[in-house]
Amino acid sequence: MKKRIAHVFLLIIPLWISSCDFTFKKEREEIVEGGTQKKGEITVYAYKGFEIEKDLIDEFTKQSGILVSIKTAGPDQIIQRLAIEEDGTPADLLIVPDVGRLLRAESKELFQKIDLKELNESIPLELRDRENNWFGLCKFAYGIAFSNERVDPLLISSYESLSGPEWNGKILTKPSVNISNQVFLSELRIITGVDYTTGWVQRISKNKAKKSFGNDGDLINDILSGKGDVAIVNSNELESRVDPIESFDNSVAEKIGFTLPNQDGDGAFINIIGGGVTKYSDNPDEAAAFLTFLTNSENNQKFAHKLYCIPLLTSELEEEDLQFSDFKENLVNLNDVESKLAETRTIFDEADWDQ
Q1: Which phi and psi angles does 273 have, rounded to 5°?
Q2: What does the pLDDT average to over 203-218?
Q3: DSSP letter for each residue of 117-148
Q4: The CATH number of the domain where 47 resides is what?
Q5: Among candidates 340, 342, 338, which has minimal Cα distance to 129?
Q6: Claim: this prediction has a pTM higher than 0.90
Q7: Chain segment 172-210, per-residue pLDDT in tens
Q8: Same domain? 82 vs 169
Q9: Strands 171-172 and 230-234: what pairing?
């Protein structure tokens, strides 16, 4: 990536969500130039950590006359809140990380179909819902993070290589309940079949340095502290940790290496940050217009950059924009992940993954 390198109680929910308007409403109203009539306001429910350039929202408002308010909470909480609010929700758009969460929201019937030529043309088929309920807005890759001090990167050229006996006691993993982990294994299942995937999970389980725990940030911290040497992590999470402007921990960039595997094979697995127009939106046309704006090539590059992600069309990037500007990605259709998730959880359980 860039070298800069359960049950939810209704009474508690209001504490989870925060308003993150990136420009004050008065300022945004003043952006509408030349007497352009104000054309309404949309509310975006997004995950905590979601950031978008102020200038990008300002430009959308200038072009469309539509004001944008963004409210954030944890990605699972924001989905649950929307499900509970139903037709009382102010949300017009839902944006969350990971296709697994988009599929979860779809299963709760939280989206409405949006059939727009512009979205279908700007978003690759494998990165959007076949029924036009959700749309990928940018991508991230499943890469391998490793200790620069203890690991030869030539030994980790593929996901498969991590299952070798030489990695016994050195692999760090996220728990089976981690949705990103489930999507990764589902993609592996689609490409290699159930027998190979089952064997791979069993071998990785034997190679673990410790009990599966935490998220990508925890795995990176465990590598830094010497609790393990190697982990599969999301590229956007690692890149946010090595940002020289945003990060306060220079040891990550110095001590953690990162590679995108399977470049001589099918390519690195991909996941997305994506969104969809909510089922109960009062402003579906305006919400769809914002989605379309974000997937415009130039805007999408700015949007992805702020989230440490890869734009939808990697081929349009300049070479200096990405450390791996010409990397090979595996074109698994993310729609196919849904049918494999239950089987994936069974594979994890049978291998005692969380032990």
Answers
A1: -100, 130
A2: 95
A3: HHHHHHS-GGGB-TTSS-EEEEEEEEEEEEET
A4: 3.40.190.10
A5: 338
A6: no
A7: 999 999 999 999 999 999 999 999 999 999 999 999 999
A8: no
A9: parallel
